[in-house]
């Protein structure tokens, strides 16, 4: 039998809202809305404005910046528990990137006015949002550093490490399929060059492809990029 979760139950699963009191959580649960996005569907569009915060419940969202020449760069990927569009809600400026669902994605949406009131009424939420913005700034700094100072091998290696998570055995593992084209858009290189680099990393024992949706990164690769 399928259990239908309430907005309050869903909010409790999101780290950003975990510090809320029961009364505060109830108030937000009354004003959020559930939405579902199909694979490839756009949540927000670059250079456009919106008035909603997106709270990811399930799925995966890709942030892409496009140039008028047609070239694209993948800036980040968001997963369940993360939030989207807090920057645009704070500065009231157009989106700096397009966000699209990589796989079927479920979200809760919160209006700008309710989001701002939530931060004003709860210092824990404001601090959590500020911490997230600082984390994104550090990620941007690392990306700029890698594009400016690293060769393609280093940029590909760092992109893989950023997408990996520790496994039970202590190794770093990527639990999703990442195409060569996607990596190329992350590191500013051609797909052909990325393919050569990936083959070289595998031949040298830095990475091991266990299946189309699982890749293990050796400690030597992670250590070389620390």
Give a description of the structure.
- The chain has two domains: 7-147, Jelly Rolls; 150-224, Arc Repressor Mutant, subunit A (Orthogonal Bundle), CATH 1.10.10.
- The protein contains nine helices and ten strands.
- It has helices at residues 7-12, 22-29, 86-91, 112-121, 123-149, 152-163, 180-187, 191-203, 219-224; strands spanning 33-37, 42-44, 52-66, 72-79, 83-84, 98-111, 165-166, 172-174, 207-211, 214-217.
- Strands 1, 2, 3, 4, 5 and 6 form a six-stranded antiparallel β-sheet that branches. A four-stranded antiparallel β-sheet has the order 7-8-10-9.
- The longest helix has 27 residues, at 123-149.
- It starts with 6 loop residues before the first helix and ends with a helix.
What's the CATH superfamily of the largest domain, by name? Jelly Rolls
Q: Under CATH, the topology of the largest domain is which?
A: Jelly Rolls
Provide the gyration radius in Å.
19 Å
- Share of β-strand residues: 25-35%
> In terms of quaternary structure, what is this?
single chain
| Chain-averaged pLDDT | 88
> What is the name of the CATH class of the largest domain?
Mainly Beta
- Characterize the largest beta sheet: strand count, sense, and whether it forms a barrel: 6 strands, antiparallel
Q: What is the number of helical segments per DSSP (H or I, 4+ residues)?
A: 9
Report how far the terminal alpha carbons are from each other.
47 Å
Helix/strand order, N-terminal first:
HHEEEEEHEHHHEEHHEEH
What portion of residues is helical? 40-55%
Give the low-confidence spans: none
Give the tally of structural domains: 2
Overall shape: globular
What structural class is derived from the secondary structure elements? alpha+beta
Number of strands: 10
The CATH architecture name of the largest domain reads: Sandwich
């Amino acid at each position: 039998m399928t259990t239908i979760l309430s907005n309050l139950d869903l909010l409790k699963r999101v780290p950003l809202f975990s510090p809320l009191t029961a009364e505060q959580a109830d108030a937000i649960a009354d004003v959020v809305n559930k939405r579902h996005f199909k694979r490839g569907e756009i949540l927000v569009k670059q250079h456009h404005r919106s008035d909603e915060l997106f709270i990811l419940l399930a799925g995966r969202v890709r942030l892409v910046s496009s140039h008028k020449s047609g070239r694209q760069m993948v800036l980040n990927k968001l997963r369940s528990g993360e939030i989207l569009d807090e920057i645009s809600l704070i500065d009231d400026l157009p989106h700096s990137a397009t966000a699209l669902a990589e796989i079927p994605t479920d979200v809760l949406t919160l209006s700008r006015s309710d989001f701002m009131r939530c931060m004003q009424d709860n210092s824990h939420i404001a601090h959590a949002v500020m911490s997230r913005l600082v984390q994104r700034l550090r990620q941007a700094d690392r990306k700029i550093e890698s594009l400016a100072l690293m060769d393609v091998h280093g940029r590909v290696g760092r992109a893989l490490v950023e997408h990996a998570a520790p496994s039970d055995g202590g190794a770093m593992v990527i639990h999703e399929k990442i195409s060569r084209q996607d990596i190329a858009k992350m590191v500013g290189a051609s797909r052909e060059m990325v393919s050569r680099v990936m083959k070289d990393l595998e031949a040298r024992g830095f990475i091991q492809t266990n299946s189309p949706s699982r890749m293990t990164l050796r400690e030597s690769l992670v250590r070389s990029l620390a």
